[in-house]
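User: Teach me something about this protein's shape.
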Amino acid sequence: MPGAWERVGAAAWPRASPLWTVMRHPALWFSLSGAFAVYLCALYSLGAPPLPLIYPDSTTYWRAHSIVPLGYPAVVHALYGATGTLKSIIVFQIVAFGASVLTLQAGVNALTRNAPLAGILALLLLGYHGLPFNSLILLTEAPFTAVLLLHVASAASGSPATRAVSASPHIAGSTRSTSPDG
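Assistant: First, the predicted structure itself:
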């Protein structure tokens, strides 16, 4: 009895065709998402307002109020002190977001060995307007998103730190005790 792929005629599709090879090649997907990330960085660098959008919480970060952690206010003041313009905050946040998405794409590609999946994920993250829009605002959402994506990329790529945590005796011992062999 023929298999499902033979019944629909998919078995005759040439899996080694040049188009199939190009569509699965990581260089295509990294080029597409990299070009989109560079486009967003240029757009936000050249077309953004001269200062970040101010929300009610923004003054809390600008004044480094005691109720907020020191990290983001320190970054904001360091960028402003180094460049003399508030637009540098926008540029830093969109560059950090774009770099973290590309790093996530590399991690997903390393984990799944599926370049189209990793590329489409990166293009969706870059294309969803809410995520890059956070780079225009003087709030912690953009750096938090970038750091979160870097954390996921680190876990997906199987970095040495991730392997060290998964190989710790406590975790290894708990997995051994639940195995069927005992």
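Now, about its shape. The chain has eleven helices and no strands. Residues 163-182 have pLDDT under 50 and may be disordered. If you'd like, I can walk through any region in more detail.
User: That's plenty for now, thanks!
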